[in-house]
Specification:
Layout (H helix, E strand, L loop, with lengths): L19 H29 L8 E2 L3 E6 L6 E5 L8 E5 L5 E3 L6 E2 L4 E9 L4 E8 L5 E5 L4 H42 L8
Antiparallel strand pairs: 1-9, 2-8, 3-7, 3-9, 4-8, 5-7, 6-7
Length: 196
Amino acid sequence: MQPHPPPRTPTARELRPGRHWYLTAAAIAVVLTVLGVVIGAYRFNNLLDAVDTDHQFANGDTVTLRLDPENEQTIWAKYPGVSPGPECDIAGPGAPRLTDPGADLFATYDETWTPVGTTDVTRAGDYTLTCSSRALSRYALGDSEGLISFAVDLIPAVLLAVLGITTAAVITLVTALRRRAHRKHLLAAPPDPSHR
């Protein structure tokens, strides 16, 4: 009776699925995470420029704006929170009005700005804007996006990163488990007669 030779240990190249799936998983994680970071940085850069605090005006000042229907402007106010809050009026061609901008917030190093209204005009032209309140207030124009909008806009960026990392983890886990199962299958197989 001949003793059986020891079972042959399969090499890493023989195992399926191939190790390239680990690199694929890492590439997916890196690409989606970087894409999420780029989107987040872009949104943050837009947030920094949302309110033009360099060009402020005070209670009772009349400001002339060139507006068109496609580019709405939001009036932001810095005031001590005394009720009632600031009120603004807009005049110009057509029937301009100010719409409710919703709840939001814009913060700088030492100031907090809240939206008062968003311009809604039907045609391009020059419009006059006057704002007032009972408290000492300052006003500035800007985009309609503040911190709350920024947080909402960050959700897709965060989800991209989470998706990338989760997908990479799943691919890595499935690849490792299938390679392990394939190794066991190769070890359990009868010896190949050509290797004698």
